[in-house]
Amino acid sequence: MTNAASLADYDDLVHRIYDAALRPERLQDVLERLCELLRAPFGNLFSWTRQPQQGGLFFTTFPDGVVEHYQRIQHDDLHMRSAARKQLLFEGSVVTSDDLVEEGELFESAVYRQIWRPLGIRRMCGGSVFGATDSH
Q1: Which of 10, 13, 50, 127 supports an S-S bond with 54, CB 3.0-4.6 Å?
Q2: CA-based diameter of the chain, in Å?
Q3: DSSP state, residue 32
Q4: Which residues are registered as beta bridge partners of 46?
């Protein structure tokens, strides 16, 4: 594959997404392919309102142990708190780190210091497919 993704690459991704709509267990493959096309080192795909044990979805490309560590310090997730406070969890929303948190504030957070910095993460981009409800 060249540096830029081709139309065929995106076409393949769209087909994988449609396939995963019928077979949710294939969402991990979709996430991995999406990260590859975007040249993103890590990614998450999850339900806002339900944990997996409640019927929600959660897929990640983070190394083992990162999600468990995050769950212990998620109260310090400035991005999620800011997105909720600014009411940005609506269907179709797309946000970046810069939309949510000032850089200096981010650098002081436990999530940044304990997870992002060791993994070389400085920014994120996120979106909401179904918003903060699971009515779909």
Answers
A1: 50
A2: 43
A3: H
A4: 58
27-38 and 7-22 helices, crossing angle to 10°:
160
List pLDDT tens digits, range 81-120: 998 899 887 888 889 999 999 999 999 999 999 999 999 9
Residue whose C-alpha is closest to residue 37's, from 19, 21, 17: 17
Indicate the residue type of 75.
H
CA-based torsion, 97, 117, 76, 24: positive or negative: positive
Beta-ladder partners of 44: 60
9 CB neighbour count, 10 Å cutoff: 15
Q: What is the pTM of this model?
A: 0.80
User: By C-alpha distance, which of 124, 32, 22 is closest to 70?
Assistant: 124
Q: Which among 44, 49, 45, 54 is positioned nearest to 132, based on CA atoms?
A: 49
3 state SS of 45? strand
